[in-house]
Amino acid sequence: MKKVIALITGGTTGERVISVKSAATISHNLDPDKFDVYKIMLTQQGWFYEPVDSVRIEVDRNDFSVLYNGRKITFDGVFIAIHGAPGEDGKLQGYFDMLNLPYTTCDALTSAVTMNKGYTKSIVQDIPNLFVAKSVQIFKNTPYHLADIKSSLTLPYFVKPNNGGSSIGMSKVKNQYDLQTAIDKAFKEDEQVLIEEFIEGREFTVGVVKLDGKITVLPATEVETAKEFFDFEAKYTPGVAVETTPAPIRPETKKRVEEIATAVYAKLNCRGVVRIDFILLGDEGDFYFIEINTIPGQTVTSFIPQQVAASGMKLNDFYTKLIKETIG
C-alpha cells in the first residue's frame, strides 16, 4: 500500500526560493510506486495544495488535511522541505508533534536549538577533536560595546545572523571600522548576531543521515570560491564556487571527519538528513565546526544530492530509505 506523503515547501523567509527548488528535486525523485505525494505550499497568506487541474485548496490546519474532489485527504507523514522559518526552527515540528504526524526532520527541540549557531556551538564544543571559533553573541535590544568585542576577538571577523541560513545577512570584516555596518546588516535578518573570529583553512561540508537504523556519513565536499566567503551567490549560482565531491582528503582525515560528524549528529539528537559545515586548518589539521543545517538544500546544485551520488546511491533510493527511517 502506497504511503500518502505531504511535501511541504515555501516558508516565510528569503530562503523560500531555495525551498521551492528543493521540493522540485524531491518530488521528482520520490518513487511513484511507493508514495502518493501532495505538494503543500506554505506562505505568509496561508497553506495551500495546488493541484495542476484545479485552483489552490487551503489546508485544514485543525488536522492537516485537504478536501480535494469531494474526498478528505490525510497524510501518513510529512516531508519537510522548508529552509529557515517555520520549517527549520522547530515550529512546524511542534505542530506536527501535536497532531502525532511523523516527519522527515529533527524534532522540535533539536531544530530550534540548531537554528541558533551560538547555542549549537556551546553544545558540541566538548566533542573530541572538534574545535569552534572564538565568538561573541549580541542581542538586538541589549546594549553591546564595540570596544569590548574588538578587544576580545582578533580580526578578521565573520558577522552573521545567529538564526539565519543560506549566508543571508553575513559579512566578513577585515577593518575594525566596518564592524558596526556588518552588525547592522545582520540585525536586519535576526534579533541575535554572532561575531566570530575568521578561521583560515579549507572549507568542507558533509551530509549525515540515519538510514537502516545506522548513522551514515556521506562523502564530504570541498568548497573553493574566489569570493571572500561562501555567500548566497556562491551557494546557489552555478560556476561561482568549485565543489569537489568526494573531497580530496587523506583516508585518516576522512575517518576523523566521519567520527566527529557522527558524534555531532548523535549529541544534537538529530533525525533525517543534516549537513555539517567545517574547516580543516593547514595540512588537514584541526577540525573547526562552522554550523549545522537540519534541512539542507536538495536543489540540483545542492551538496546532499552530489554526496548521495558520490556514495553510489540513487536519490530515489535515498529518499525512500529516509522516509522509511523517519516516517515508517
TrEMBL record:
It is found in: Cytoplasm. It catalyses: 2 D-alanine + ATP = D-alanyl-D-alanine + ADP + phosphate + H(+). Its main location: cytoplasm. It is an enzyme of class 6 (ligase). Its EC number is 6.3.2.4. The active site is at 15, 166, 302. One of its GO terms (cellular component) is cytoplasm. One of its GO terms (molecular function) is metal ion binding. InterPro entries: ATP-grasp, ATP_grasp_subdomain_1, D-Ala_lig_Van_CS, D_ala_D_ala, Dala_Dala_lig_C, Dala_Dala_lig_N, PreATP-grasp_dom_sf. It comes from the Bacteria. Residues 117-324 form the ATP-grasp domain. Mg(2+) 2 binds at residues 291, 293. Binds 2 magnesium or manganese ions per subunit. Mg(2+) 1 binds at residues 277, 291. GO terms for biological process: cell wall organization; peptidoglycan biosynthetic process; regulation of cell shape. Pathway: Cell wall biogenesis; peptidoglycan biosynthesis. Keywords: ATP-binding, Cell shape, Cell wall biogenesis/degradation, Cytoplasm, Ligase, Magnesium, Manganese, Metal-binding, Nucleotide-binding, Peptidoglycan synthesis. It holds the Pfam family Dala_Dala_lig_C. Its cofactor is Mn(2+); Mg(2+). Cell wall formation. Belongs to the D-alanine--D-alanine ligase family. This is D-alanine--D-alanine ligase.
